What does this fold into?
Amino acid sequence: MISVSGSVISATTGFRISEATIDFKFKDTSELVKTLITDSSGEFSDEFLPDETFTAYVTCDGYFPAEYEFDVLNSPLILQSFVLVPDRGDVITLVLTWGEVPIDLDTYLHRFANPDMPDKPEFSIYFAQKYYLENDVVVAELDIDNRHGFGLETTSIHDYSGEYEFFC
It folds into this structure.
């Protein structure tokens, strides 16, 4: 058996989530192998069969479900954090994750000017301009800008009228 551990984190805060449920299934058969629940620090660990590919189905109240695939090849295996996006109604949440290399990636959100919408001017959100306000209300914001590998960079759009471009 191979020791596997990891955590579940919120896409908008970067904090670990306790009591998230993770159903681990064999990739090829979708047979349920086990169900784990994150502890009070948002972490989980258990033993898994070697040389298998698993799909982890992650759920938690107030968050959209997510699924992750991983191979169990060597021990101990520390998984990249599973990320859940909170259900915030009409907010669009864009999440970028990556591995150790590169150390940092930067995302950019750009809203284009539209002559038919003069009250919705052009703007950009990125590491140096983390949010944009209209009438003292947040239109879009860079929630998380992780600069140390295994990134989590999250951008939220609260008012999505207009044409946007998201890139890194």
